[in-house]
Every structure is written in structure tokens, then in C-alpha cells.
């Protein structure tokens, strides 16, 4: 999953980016509203952490611009304001959830997990596809109750596919959502990781749709 953090406090920005990176996300960052608005309008983020009190362009204006441009990624707003009217203003602008500063980083991580799950139509931390169970909170995968050891790259790939179970995901989309802007898009990394995942899972839930990409489906649902 690829996230954007827009926060002008450099220390807090760094702390959030570090926590999200350690949790397995690919993270881009911006320090003002102008840069954040541009990135949000031009890059395919799965979710955004957006501060309300930004220089150049404030967070409300940034969020309104994204929604006018039909950028529908989930947005978690950060606000130092604890007046209920400010929170209402954020929701009216298109926010999906909020956290009031100061906050515990675990709360930000939990709220982002919930936003990502809901955006993909999943109600709990556990995503199930046939005998494969992926725990988004613990970062664990089990098959028929047996744990499967995956690298961070393998886990990110499987997680993205399982968040979108049943949908064909192109190679380009996987690269855009799983890797940073410097990734070599001509490499065969995706194909290599798909091959490794199939071997480690030992069950055929990752289908290749020739000319289109990959799709995760439970074995009994495939044909």
C-alpha cells in the first residue's frame, strides 16, 4: 500500500513516515499544502495522512481540491484543534477520519488500517481467501492454520492483491502502489515475487490473467 503524509512539522512528519514504513507501507511525504495537493492529484495513493494547519495552502482547501478532482482515496486528517466545529469542517470537506494532536502513533496506524479495509470492503483486520488468512494488524499470513514466512516485499504484494480480492490488478498498478517513484518499472520484480508467493503459499489463489495482470480468488471460486 502506498501512502502520502502531508505535515509541515518536520519532526512529526519524520516520525509518522518512519512508523508507516516500519509497518510495511510505501510512503511519500510533503511539508506544505501546495506540494501535498500536487502529489495527491497526480499519484495513486491508497490513503493520505493530512494535517489541517499547513503553510501555502491549508488542509481543508487541499482536501476540497482533491475531492473536486475526484480523488477518492481515504484521508485521515490531523488537527491540533479540538473544537467540534473544526472536525465537522474536515468531514464536510471530504475527510474519512481524524486524529487530534497529540496522538499515539498506534492510533494513527489503527485508523489507517481501518480506512484501508473499509475502502476495499473488508470489515475486520483479517482478510480471508480460501485457506489463506492475512492479518493486517499483525502482518502475518497463515495457510490452513500454518504460518507462512514472507519477506516484507512478498507480504506487501499479497496484501494488496487480497485487499482487492476478485479484481484483476495490472502490473503497472502493483508497481505504482507498492514501490516508490525510483523503482525500475521495466524490471521483472513483480513476476519474481508472484512466483515466490505461489511456492510459499502452496495453493493456487494468485491467477495470471494473460495480458491484464493478476487476480486473487479462492480456489473453489475460480474456473
Molecular structure report:
The chain is an alpha/beta fold and 223 residues long. It folds into two domains: 2-119, Response regulator (Rossmann fold, 3-Layer(aba) Sandwich); 126-221, Orthogonal Bundle (Arc Repressor Mutant, subunit A). It contains eight helices and eleven strands. It has a five-stranded parallel β-sheet, sandwiched between helices. Strands 6-7-8-9 form a four-stranded antiparallel β-sheet, with helices on one face. A two-stranded antiparallel ribbon has the order 10-11. Helix 2 runs parallel beside helix 3 and helix 6 packs across helix 8. The longest helix is centred in the middle third of the chain and has 15 residues, at 105-119. The protein is globular and about 50 Å long. The protein starts with a strand and ends in a 7-residue tail after the last strand.
Count structural domains: 2
Oligomer: single chain
> SSE order in H/E notation?
EHEHEHEHEHEEEEHHHEE
Strand residue content: 15-25%
Mind telling me the CATH superfamily name of the largest domain? Answer: Response regulator
CATH architecture of the largest domain: 3-Layer(aba) Sandwich
User: What is the CATH class designation of the largest domain?
Assistant: Alpha Beta
- Judged by helices, strands and strand pairing, the structural class is alpha/beta
Which of globular, elongated, flat, extended, rod-shaped describes the shape?
globular
Could you tell me the CATH topology label of the largest domain.
Rossmann fold
Work out the helix count: 8
Distance between the termini: 28 Å
Work out the number of β strands.
11
Low-confidence stretches: none
Q: Main sheet, how many strands, which sense, barrel?
A: 5 strands, parallel
Strand order of the largest sheet: 2-1-3-4-5
Helix content: 40-55%
Radius of gyration: 18 Å
Mean pLDDT equals: 91
